[in-house]
Amino acid sequence: MIWKSLRELPVWMRFFTLGRLIKSTGSLAWLYMAVYLVQERGLEPAMAGFIVGANGVGIIAGSLSGGWVGDRFGIRRTIIVSNIGSAIGAVLVPLVPVGALGFVTATSGFVGAMGFPLGMALVAGSIPPAQRRTGVALSRAAMNAGVVLGPPLGALAASYDFRIVFLMESVAGLAMAFVIWRFVPRPAAPSTLNPGGSSLWRAVAADRTIWMLLLAVLLVDAAYRQIFTALPLMLTDTGTRLIGYSALISLSSVLIVIAETPLAVKLANRPALKIIPIGYLFIGLGFVALVFSPTYAGAALCIGLITLGEMLYKPTSAAYAADRAPDGMQGRYQSLYSSASIGGMVIAPPLGGYVYQHAPGLLWPICASLALLGAAAFFLLTQPRVVIAADTETLA
């Protein structure tokens, strides 16, 4: 099914998907950054956390600004510069003194993050609407395949020489830049250019489905990302070894690689606003499973339900944001969507950590409520409005 879907897409999209796989497989430097800083540079964990945090700040800023830069100077050109810049940043990390690491990681995060929402904008905005969900799903499948392949390769390289990890990151970024430059065609100029920021906010404010989508993604992702923050804490506190948790996450990625694209193809003609709330519903049900069974078995059921929900709502949401984008705003719409998701990633750790420490019994009900409220809001959004008119006839 995946190969059939690839053959139906433009040739450049096949190379783009390969580039995504290479890029995701090689994106290892920041995954192992804290370990590198402590073990190889001799930093205290607190200082290492500050430097890694600087990279996170850069990622948020880059995601927010990437859409505007891409719409203003060209999405294709910006992605190429973004990947080259992140490749240079990865090479610099082992070379610069400790005092400059915070600046290097923040700058590299900023430049590299500009290309992430633009990659989705390039896919969603450059292929026919009927194939957008398939294209986004294939791109996500490639990234998740890289998540499966990359970490063990990075761990093997780090055991030999940590500098190889940063070299792999740099080569992956340059490979992605080459794929974009060589195989991805320059997009046609939009019929209407809207470089001004105020016009973007007016467009979003006038489209209630988009701002509802952004708000829902922010809240649902804040719940969804607890599987990466609070869930491992719960499992290790109840006696599960970390390898047991990592097995669940790896199996989730494998399932996405295998099933997300065929699912997107099968549902391609179904209304997006019907599929998105079903995805939220499965996210909520996953956390309901933890409410009733805060055990490893409950966590396995939770991950299974959440993975199904993720496969439904994530590619559909990204494609829907592209469908709603006015001409000249494709990059900014994807940047807003990506930033909303990253905002959930920022909210999740402090929210999960605080609630888990002070009221652990409330965390999973809160997560379930956020996702189920998102599902209910989208369900109501899709219902036809009923207008009751007054009867103006006069009875004789």
UniProtKB/TrEMBL annotation:
PROSITE patterns xref list: MFS
Q: How does it sit in the membrane?
A: Multi-pass membrane protein
Q: Where is the Major facilitator superfamily (MFS) profile domain?
A: 1-386
Provide any one GO MF term from the record.
transmembrane transporter activity
Sorted keywords for this record are: Cell membrane, Membrane, Transmembrane, Transmembrane helix, Transport
Per its UniProt record, what InterPro entries does this chain match?
MFS, MFS_dom, MFS_trans_sf, MFS_Transporters, Tet-R_TetA/multi-R_MdtG-like
Which GO terms of the cellular component aspect does the record hold? plasma membrane
The record ties this protein, via Pfam families, to:
MFS_1
Membrane-spanning parts: 21-39, 45-68, 80-104, 110-129, 141-158, 164-184, 205-224, 244-265, 272-290, 296-313, 334-356, 362-381
> What subcellular compartments does it reside in?
Cell membrane
Q: Which domain of life is it from?
A: Bacteria
The entry's protein name is MFS transporter
